[in-house]
Every structure is written in structure tokens, then in C-alpha cells.
Amino acid sequence: MTSHEIDYKILGNDIQMVEVELDPQETVIAEAGTMVYMDESIRFEAKMGDGSQANQGLLGKLISAGSRVLTGESLFLTHFTNDGFAKARVAFSAPYPGTIIPVDLKTLRSPLVVQKDGFLCAAKGTKFSIVFNRKLGAGLVGGEGFILQKLEGDGKAFVHAGGTVIRKDLNDELLRVDTGCVVAFENTIDFDVEKAGSMKSMIFGGEGLFVATLRGTGTVWLQSMPIRKLIQALAPYGRNAGKENQSILGQFLER
Q1: Beta strand segments in the chain, E
Q2: pTM to 2 decimals?
Q3: pLDDT band at 176, cuts 50/70/90?
Q4: Residue 48 in 3-state DSSP?
């Protein structure tokens, strides 16, 4: 299915949102709870499945929805459609401070692999699936878990990340990264982890026990402030110092 042609603009600096402009009968799909505002002619509906296959049966929708549950996301995606006769707008924001990354999927060499909570919204026609980390080490200590999201299509998708986003284009190269700083990468990139140097460096270097390795040819997007680092930094100021899940921000994010 050909993706809908949507226009957009990114609003804000430190806490961004994306405003999507829809022509009549165009649709954008988004994570539940990310909508900020929408024009009167926008109709929204929660659906199982991404709508990438027009005649997708119940079984296909259940498989698609089930794969999202495995990544920790909502069972449903919300479809926002312009039912009016003129252009209309709907805006979405990320659940925490950071940057929104617009990605034109048709310009990539391969499908886009995204951290499990990184997807924000996309043009209807974008196909969602899951991809498993093939290597045990990457799944256990890579910061991204065993299961990641994969986006395929020829339209625009929007991914959110913490802090500033850095884009790196690798040409048969190796890049070492903090394990929580990987936001997304093309499927041509091999993702793994390795020990952070010598035992002394691992204990006293302050960079953790492992670093992520990204190897191959393709594009990688990195974030400067993973949400776990933000929670850890604010934990001493919470009501239960030293317990990151009991910090003020931690309690807010768990609701």
C-alpha cells in the first residue's frame, strides 16, 4: 500500500511537537495519548493494526497488534483522518523532553529499526513489525532489549528521542555508543555490545560495563539524553533519594 502524502512542521525547541497537515481523506497514525490538538474536521479512531494492508483480515490485525504488545506499546494505534473538504491539522508531542526526528522512509536503504518506545506517528501505509536482537548480549545489556520496532514504507515517519539528536552516516565503519543512546538505525547496520575496555576502565571509567557497537553501512540516529539517565539524575531530588523509580519524575512517568 502506498503511504499517504502528508505535510508537517516541527514546533518548539527543547520540548517539541509535530503538526501534521492532512488533505481531505488523508490519515496519519499515532501512538495512543500523543495527540495535542486537532482541527474540527479531524476524525480519530483507535484500531488494531497499522492499516498498511487495506484488506487485512482479523488474524493479520491480531498479529500486528500482538507484536506491538511485545514491544511494550499499546494494543491499538489511533488513526486520525481528515473528513473535511479543506486541509486540516493535527499535532502530536513526545511523552518526555527531547527532539522529534522526521524520517522519509523511501529515502532509506532498508527498513528503519527503532527503540521500542521511540515511535510517535507516521503516514498511513507505514507497516509496523518487530525485530528480535539476534545476539544474546545485545538483548541483555544493550539498553534496547530483545525486541525492537521495524518501520517499512514509502512515507514519512516521526521518531522521538531524549535531548539532542545526532545523525551518523556509516560507510562500512564501526561506531561505539553508550548503550542507551541508540534511537534508530537502518536495518543494514549490525547492532551488538562489547565490554567497555579493561577491568579498571569498566569499574572507574564512568561509562558503564558495556558499550553498544554499530557496524556496517547505513544511517544511525543517537540521543544525548536517554530517559533513564534523566530519571537517574533527578532521583536524588525525589522524596526517596537513590530510588530512581520513586523519584518525582519516576512516579509521574509510571502513571
Answers
A1: 7-11, 17-22, 27-31, 35-38, 42-47, 77-82, 88-93, 98-104, 112-114, 119-123, 127-132, 147-152, 156-162, 165-178, 182-186, 190-195, 210-223
A2: 0.80
A3: very high
A4: coil
C-alpha cell at position 202: 569498566
Domains in the chain, start-ordered, CATH in brackets? 7-163 (3.60.160.10)
Cell numbers standing for residue 171: 560507510
CB 18 within 8 A of CB 92: yes
Closest CA to 11 of 125, 89, 79, 66: 89
Tell me the three cell numbers of residue 66. Answer: 500482538
157: closest CA among 189, 186, 119, 111? 119
Distance (Å, whole) CA 4 – CA 126: 9
**The CA-based dihedral angle spanning residues 48, 52, 53, 58, taken in that order and rounded to the nearest 10 degrees:** -10
Question: What's the mean pLDDT in 125-154?
Answer: 70
DSSP assignment, residue 15? Answer: B
- Hey, what amino acid is at 130? I
- CA atoms within a 13 Å half-sphere pointing along the CA-CB vector of 221: 25
